[in-house]
């Protein structure tokens, strides 16, 4: 009979792998179970035809903005190579007036314009100053004091261009949030914490660099779906077509709707929050090109937000993000669908999705369709948490829940849709599981498989 597991972690995205790493480092026996055939979750990178194709658009700001991520990066030694996490030059632009307007999201943009009028830039500075002085905590958006205000409500107090050309497209393009539905508090807290886009970095070897580095140190079982968790006096049983696994405790590092389905017996405070955590679907198309192309005005830049487009929210020139993303002389461009298009095209065939988004991209990248060698469509039913006011209202009770044999990790636990939200949740989950294991000494007399 093998030694029983202390912790089984369901999900090998950054939240699950970081939780497992922290617990294993503390001396706990941990196994990670992942339904997919590779680790990374929404931070997965495909390696095909000499390209590194990121399934998402994750960027890494400074350590001040992403302290949990950088703490983990340093702990596993990813920062020992100075070229492993390079800066991305001119990372973010806005498409307006027939070209990309650079320096979005950085102080220089207040001078160069970003496609905004002088009055709009003054109002943007006023908004950013207000958020900076508000002491917002991205780990506790429910404490922001913004009540039931939505992102649209927050922006309505400022010049229309601030919302229509910059911050509205930021919410919809990078988070998939319709501004009229998403609560203002998580958006404001994330905006205040993230700082200037001039600090944005990327992983040279693909956005799955951190998950792969963590997985290499852990007991990870891919192609191992979990269909349910059942708590009992001797621990938790995880049901799976691959056979049951038992452990003293379990961390569900999966989207909230999946966690709710796996753990229908969750206590009321947990269940209320899980039910309140909505999600925005994400749809992204990667185009492998026979030559590099960039939107006009963004020769060096990476991401271009596209305001007021029914189909297209963001265009990313991935070969400009880092030269290793595409072979020399080739190009790699990704197209992020708008929130409405992500819903409407969720079940459309890949060729239709690729064709329609590429057609919309022609005004930014004339002739792009003729240069496409291959199209890859990435779909996430549970793309990013979509925080609504009922989730904010339910969160205090969820945060104050007692220790239990089943716990959670993921960016949805703080309503912060980014890798920092995921990694920060891992530190919380690991602390809670350690405390639970310390106070409960029972062992599980069964074989962990």
Automatic annotation (TrEMBL):
One Pfam family in the UniProt entry: Amino_oxidase
EC number(s) given by UniProt: 1.-.-.-
Gene Ontology MF annotations: oxidoreductase activity
UniProt keywords, alphabetically: Oxidoreductase
UniProt entry tagged with the keyword Oxidoreductase: yes
Source organism superkingdom: Bacteria
Domain Amine oxidase: 15-433
SUPFAM superfamilies the UniProt entry points to: FAD-linked reductases, C-terminal domain, FAD/NAD(P)-binding domain
Protein name from the UniProt record: NAD(P)/FAD-dependent oxidoreductase
Source organism per UniProt: Nocardiopsis codii
């Amino acid at each position: 009979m093998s030694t029983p597991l202390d912790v089984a972690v369901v999900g090998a995205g950054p939240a699950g792998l970081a939780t497992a790493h922290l617990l294993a480092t503390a001396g706990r026996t941990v196994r990670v179970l992942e339904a997919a055939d590779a680790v990374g979750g929404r931070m997965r990178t495909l390696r095909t035809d000499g390209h590194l194709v990121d399934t998402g658009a994750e960027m890494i700001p400074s350590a001040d903005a992403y302290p949990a991520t950088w703490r983990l990066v340093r702990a596993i030694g990813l920062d020992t190579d100075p070229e492993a996490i390079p800066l991305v030059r001119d990372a973010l632009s806005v498409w307006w007036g027939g070209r990309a307007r650079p320096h979005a999201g950085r102080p220089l943009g207040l001078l160069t314009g970003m496609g905004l009028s002088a009055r709009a830039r003054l109002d943007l500075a006023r908004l950013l100053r207000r958020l900076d002085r508000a002491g917002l905590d991205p780990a506790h958006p429910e404490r922001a004091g913004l009540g039931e205000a939505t992102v649209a409500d927050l922006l309505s107090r400022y010049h229309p261009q601030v919302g229509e050309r910059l911050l509205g497209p930021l919410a919809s393009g990078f988070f998939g949030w319709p501004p009229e539905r998403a609560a203002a508090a998580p958006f404001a807290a994330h905006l205040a914490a993230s700082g200037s886009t001039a600090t944005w970095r990327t992983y040279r070897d693909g956005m799955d660099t951190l998950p792969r580095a963590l997985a290499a140190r852990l007991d990870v079982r891919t192609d191992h779906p979990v269909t349910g968790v059942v708590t009992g006096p001797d621990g938790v049983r995880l049901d799976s077509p691959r056979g049951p696994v038992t452990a003293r405790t379990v961390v569900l590092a999966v989207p909230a709707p999946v966690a709710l389905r796996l753990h229908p017996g969750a206590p009321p405070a947990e269940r209320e929050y899980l039910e309140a955590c909505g999600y925005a679907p994400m749809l992204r198309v990667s185009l492998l090109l026979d030559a590099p192309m960039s939107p006009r005005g963004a020769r060096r830049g990476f991401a271009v937000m596209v305001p007021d487009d029914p189909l297209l929210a963001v265009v990313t020139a991935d070969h400009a993000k880092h030269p290793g993303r595409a072979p020399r002389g080739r190009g790699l461009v990704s197209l992020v669908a708008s929130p409405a298009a992500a819903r409407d095209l969720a079940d459309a065939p890949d060729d239709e999705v690729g064709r329609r988004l590429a057609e919309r991209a022609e005004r930014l990248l004339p002739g792009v369709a003729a240069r496409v060698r291959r199209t890859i469509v990435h779909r996430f039913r549970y793309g990013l948490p979509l925080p609504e006011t009922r989730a904010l209202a339910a969160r205090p009770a969820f945060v104050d829940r007692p220790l239990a044999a089943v716990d959670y990790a993921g960016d949805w636990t703080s309503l912060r849709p980014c890798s920092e939200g995921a990694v920060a949740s891992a530190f919380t989950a690991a602390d809670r599981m350690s405390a639970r294991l310390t106070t409960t000494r029972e062992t599980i007399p069964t074989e962990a498989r």
